[in-house]
Amino acid sequence: MKFGTLFSYWNTEWNCDAAGYARLIEKVAAIGFDLLEISADHVHRMSEEELVRLREHAAAHRIGFTINSGPAKEFDLASVEAATRQNGIAYFETILQKMVVLGADSLAGAIYSYWPADFVSTDKEGAWERSIAALKLVAKTAERLGITISLEVLNRNETYILTTSAEAVEYCRRIDSPSMKILLDTYHMNIEEDDLLEAIRTAGPLLGHFHVGENNRKLPGMNNSIDWKRVAEGLHEIGYDGNVVMEPFLLAGGAVGHSIRVWRDLSDGADTAGMDQHITRSLQFLRAEFAAR
Ligand SMILES: [Mn+2]
């Protein structure tokens, strides 16, 4: 398994430019990570030169990239508007092509619609039909470029489309592409699934990416609200050797705090050095918990 973190851990704004990512590559390498998960929207906006420079900088620090997407509503592949779906398909095709330049082969997130859902429409059957047809097209490009797309199973407050592992398996079966997999996230699973091990077992070989966080999105090991031993057992049982990426959100405020609904400090008042200590300890915890036995 390879271990990573989402880029936004140290900040309360989503914005991050190429220079910001270059500094984060150095930081996560020094902490001992294998991966940095970065924003698909930022990849979409970066120039070819910036992507090549980041690729070289990451390689020099032995850091790989995974790409995280919570698409804006204008790119909604489940939209009733054909023009919006078309816009979304073009958006993801550009991201996939830019990922090749960046040297990244894993795109993950709520690619099937937009995030977070505003629940203005909750026509689940229609959303499945429209987004599956759109994703069949995106999957062809992903197959050609050797990229895996992992569809994120979220909780009921963030989507109505995919909220359990079993639903995601059926959804993937209907897309029927070797490039299309599932992203499970312990934070969402903890809300929706009856049993974490059973949910991982259900995804089985379709598990393409794995997000980890405690019940309130604290770092793994910070409160052990998640049964990490049972999660590790599930991952070992299905022979998972893919990416394990933390999505920790400890800081209130800013656009990140608002999107994630962090209304109080969860960092114990940590400064930057304290935040580094928290995540270093969590990485050690995860490597130990998920080690082969
Ligand atoms: Mn997640």
Describe this structure in words.
- It holds the Pfam family AP_endonuc_2.
- Residues 25-264 form the Xylose isomerase-like TIM barrel domain.
- Keywords: Isomerase.
- This is Sugar phosphate isomerase/epimerase.
- GO terms for molecular function: isomerase activity.
- With 293 residues, the protein is an alpha/beta fold.
- It has a single domain, classed as TIM Barrel.
- Helices cover 47% and strands 14% of the residues.
- The chain contains eleven helices and eight strands.
- Strands 1-2-3-4-5-6-7-8 form an eight-stranded parallel beta barrel, surrounded by six helices.
- Strand 4 (106-109), helix 5 (124-145) and strand 5 (148-152) form a beta-alpha-beta unit.
- Bound molecules: manganese (II) ion.
- Manganese (II) ion binds at residues 152, 185, 211, 247.
